[in-house]
Amino acid sequence: MIKDCGDLAFRVDNLYVEHEKILEIYEHLDALPTQQRSRHSFILGGGGVGKSQMAKNYLQRNPGYTIVDEDDNEVDIKPVVLVETPHPFTWKELYYAIFKGLGTTRIPGNVGELKDRMMHLLKKQQVKILIMDEIHNILTSTAVSKKSAMEHLKSISNVTNVSLVLIGTQNAKELRDLDDQYKSRFRVKYLRRFEECDEVFCDFLNAVEKQLSLPYFLGLGNRNSVLPTLLHRQSKGKVGFLIPIIQEAFRLRGIYEEDINDLNDSKITISDLDRAYKIVVGDEETEED
Questions:
Q1: Which of 233, 237, 204 is nearest to 49 (CA)?
Q2: Residue 80 φ/ψ, nearest 5 degrees
Q3: Which residues have C-beta within 8 Å of that of residue 278, sequence separation ≥ 6?
Q4: Is pLDDT of 233 > 90?
Q5: How would residue 289 be classed by pLDDT, with cut points 50, 70 and 90?
Q6: Is residue 24 part of a domain?
Q7: Is there a single domain that holds both residue 163 and residue 268?
Q8: Confidence band for 26, pLDDT divided at 50, 70 and 90
Q9: How far apart, in whole angstroms, are the C-alpha atoms of residue 174 and residue 177?
Q10: pLDDT confidence of 69, banded at 50, 70, 90?
Q11: How far is the C-alpha of 42 from the C-alpha of 64, rounded, in Å?
């Protein structure tokens, strides 16, 4: 149970619930480095379903550690590395994105030198899974063809024995469909929105309320109230909209203000959710996927 508004503000800021599909994808990712076939994966889904936050959370679940090598140098071991696919997509920017994920500063050099350095670090830092978010950025590249990009990623994997996890919108499946070899090596997992305001969605809302550990019953997932229907309509079942709406509603209740003393004053209302929706989403409808 939360003790004060500072505690509540912390819980609201760090609100993240791993629903069943997220846990299923985590289990799939955990198994990738141990498989001989289909060692790579595409994680696809529409905007706002929580793909990027899922990737960040998976990274947190697999923290690195430091060892001392035979030359008495400290080496940061990173079993999982998360990078954002650069836009526009070029080889240099790809290498720099991977350097950033590895905790290495940008270094000067030509494309060949940067590639060699990147390959060396992936092996030295014992990377098992390389997650590339926003992989659909490759589709709009004018500097690199889609096939060249996929062949290059395959080459990185072959040399370093790293499993690739490519996360993007559903049209990124076009990259996998370029070659039958990609189809055999890359499995596809989908992260979808909650399509209906059903028991599964309400269970998710109940888990959200449980994580907040409120001193009162709010009833986010109570089927006998209007809250589940309202939240589903506002978010279209997309976690990437749902959580920010709830967070903004609590902000509107003043949980970050120093003069709030009674935790009961933090109880959000339908009016708060309506105001939060307009702030987070605005007047534009979220697109259907």
A1: 237
A2: -130, 130
A3: none
A4: yes
A5: very low
A6: no
A7: no
A8: very high
A9: 5
A10: confident
A11: 23
* Phi, psi angles (nearest 5°) of residue 146: -60, -45
- Predicted TM-score (pTM) of this structure: 0.89
Mean pLDDT to the nearest integer, 154-179: 95
* Cβ neighbour number for residue 247 with a 10 Å cutoff: 18
Task: Please state at what angle helix 111-124 crosses helix 91-102, rounded to 10 degrees.
Answer: 30
Q: Which domain holds residue 96?
A: 35-190
Q: Which of 190, 215, 247 is the last residue of a domain?
A: 190
Domain count, the chain: 2
Q: What pLDDT score does 287 carry?
A: 46
Pair (45, 140) in one structural domain:
yes
